[in-house]
Amino acid sequence: xxxxxxxxxxxxxxxxxxxxxxxxxxxxxxxxxxxxxxxxxxxxxxxxxxxxxxxxxxxxxxxxxxxxxxxxxxxxxxxxxxxxxxxxxxxxxxxxxxxxxxxxxxxxxxxxxxxxxxxxxxxxxxxxxxxxxxxxxxxxxxxxxxxxxxxxxxxxxxxxxxxxxxxxxxxxxxxxxxxxxxxxxxxxxxxxxxxxxxxxxxxxxxxxxxxxxxxxxxxxxxxxxxxxxxxxxxxxxxxxxxxxxxxxxxxxxxxxxxxxxxxxxxxxxxxxxxxxxxxxxxxxxxxxxxxxxxxxxxxxxxxxxxxxxxxxxxxxxxxxxxxxxxxxxxxxxxxxxxxxxxxxxxxxxxxxxxxxxxxxxxxxxxxxxxxxxxxxxxxxxxxxxxxxxxxxxxxxxxxxxxxxxxxxxx
Length: 410
Ligand SMILES: Cc1cc2nc3c(=O)[nH]c(=O)nc-3n(C[C@H](O)[C@H](O)[C@H](O)COP(=O)(O)OP(=O)(O)OC[C@H]3O[C@@H](n4cnc5c(N)ncnc54)[C@H](O)[C@@H]3O)c2cc1C
Ligand code: SF4
Known about the structure:
Number of helices: 15
CATH superfamily of the largest domain: FAD/NAD(P)-binding domain
Radius of gyration: 23 Å
Strand order of the largest sheet: 3-2-1-4-15
Strand content: 15-25%
Number of domains: 3
Structural class: alpha/beta
Bound molecules: flavin-adenine dinucleotide, iron/sulfur cluster
């Protein structure tokens, strides 16, 4: 019924709004005519990570936000329809992807997150022999370890990895570049290398008592991998204002915290979290303390008892284009809490001699780095714009096309 509501627009705005430009009317039409395998094929033609994207994409900001029916009616539930077609193909293990004849070319990929998986899968489709080196025990990157189970359960992320492996891609997990092998070593064996190492761990919050603060990325990972051993406080404070902060807060709430407060130096207007995520957190009962700066963690023995905070006023815009937070002298207060979680972004990584700009790997329009034969994509190059799974997947897809051109035609 939902598929039949679609107007199958010509030059569809939903397709333009999708970073991978999935032909939405085409795959929705195939659902409407009960051709679910055809629909899955139409999705895979543009996005090998269609199953994860159907679950994790901020569709309100992308395809559904652009749907012409959004103005006066409800937009088509494009994400749910995509998930329906993808689940149909996955649950029946139906392979809909055609592989080209082997080319004899070998490519190494560093990092098995969305960018690496998409690039590896697209290269395998074109007949290249691909090996993915991943430092963690499991492949999938943040889809496996970082995106909350509510959106992307671990088994779904791993099913996508298995699908890429079925295309012929080899995975070597527990293998870290810089520790177990070098970029130069890979270049000696492979015709090209794609770096898709994402970003690093959380940076320091820079306040006294930091050692008592829980890392938000670890918090989410534990909630996915080992929830029985995740300690959740009664009165949790989350420092940060992005989507990861919202994720940490909603996990804490759903796992039994009585009170959860997100603390942010600016106001709701400047938060980097999506509007729908902010609304979701409020609907889950998460509280917000805006114009508040953490100063130091208060403890008794090893237990956290509070967070000393300062009040802020906003001044002129700073380099980020947002009003600069300025502490109000003497305005200090204590937030009672027994667990503080920081969700303040990820550190940037550097890779063996590759030129960086502003902490990100520098690439040209073909995702070519400063080193011949070495490409990069995903979060490790995303200087501007919100980083997301679909953007990382699209980087991998576009980089694979550029690599293929150079590998086959010089
Ligand atoms: C908590 C959190 C929640 C998010 N939720 C969403 C969401 O709901 N929707 C959405 O669209 N986006 C979300 N994102 C963003 C999204 O997950 C990322 O943009 C996306 O995963 C980036 O893909 P990537 O392949 O570039 O990097 P990653 O997913 O980070 O993958 C990089 C991979 O490289 C590996 N690696 C790193 N260094 C090395 C090395 N030296 N050698 C070998 N392997 C290495 C890592 O272990 C990892 O597996 C979220 C991000 C976070 C942090
Ligand atoms: S914009 Fe909406 S109605 Fe038009 S094709 Fe896309 S989903 Fe269908």
